[in-house]
């Protein structure tokens, strides 16, 4: 099995690897490297703007911006200094219009960048009580940001008003990964406490918990 799904009765079921997974129509027969972006140090986060053809790579203290519409470009077109030099960017998300970038990492503050200006600038900062953010997710309507915090909390942010709306509490160690359902009603989070949890975003409560301690 390479993944799991939740059955109708709420149980985790393995998804078997299909026999024709590598043979079916439309499956690429090969992959080749077409470009390398030399960030220069460890990269912990990457996001791509399909509207502007820019790639954002997050590393130590900063996010570097690359123009992939210019083949062979060896230098970033900009550098966004987000954190102290020794702190790593852990996640970055760009809104679909390519005008707003949200950055989180080893700091209690998320930075929201305005990319529409000639020189990108921070237009807002969102501060929580946790010392770090490990992962970010954006709601399908692009109105809400979810941040996975090192204290185990999931913080819900209103991007329009730039305010903290709610916190989901349940993980007993850092919340490290996150995904949201296509209809925006459920949130899935994984944590360093070896659990995966499902949250109901309409009622603001935990629906399910799956323990992977024995895995």
UniProtKB/TrEMBL annotation:
Q: Does the keyword Repeat apply?
A: yes
Tell me the keywords, alphabetical order.
Repeat, WD repeat
Give a Pfam family name: WD40
**What residue intervals traverse the membrane?**
none
Map the WD repeats onto residue numbers.
Answer: 126-167, 168-209
What protein family is recorded?
Answer: Belongs to the WD repeat Groucho/TLE family.
Q: What is this protein called?
A: Uncharacterized protein
């Amino acid at each position: 099995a390479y993944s799991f799904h939740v059955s109708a009765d709420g149980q985790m079921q393995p998804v078997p690897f299909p026999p024709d997974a590598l043979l079916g129509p439309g499956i690429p027969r090969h992959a080749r490297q077409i470009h390398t972006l030399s960030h220069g140090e460890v990269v912990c986060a990457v996001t791509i703007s399909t509207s502007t053809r820019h790639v954002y790579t997050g590393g130590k203290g900063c996010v570097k911006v690359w123009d992939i519409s210019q083949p062979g470009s060896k230098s970033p077109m900009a550098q966004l200094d987000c954190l102290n030099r020794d702190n790593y960017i852990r996640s970055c998300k760009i809104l679909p219009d390519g005008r707003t970038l949200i950055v989180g990492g080893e700091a209690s503050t998320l930075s929201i960048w305005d990319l529409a200006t000639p020189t990108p600038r921070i237009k807002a900062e969102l501060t929580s009580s946790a010392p770090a953010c490990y992962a970010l997710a954006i709601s399908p309507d692009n109105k809400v940001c979810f941040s996975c915090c090192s204290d185990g909390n999931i913080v819900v942010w209103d991007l329009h008003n730039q305010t903290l709306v709610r916190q989901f509490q349940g993980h007993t160690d850092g919340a490290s990964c996150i995904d949201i359902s296509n209809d925006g009603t459920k949130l899935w989070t994984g944590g360093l406490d070896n659990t995966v949890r499902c949250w109901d975003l309409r009622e603001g409560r935990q629906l399910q918990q799956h323990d992977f301690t024995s895995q």
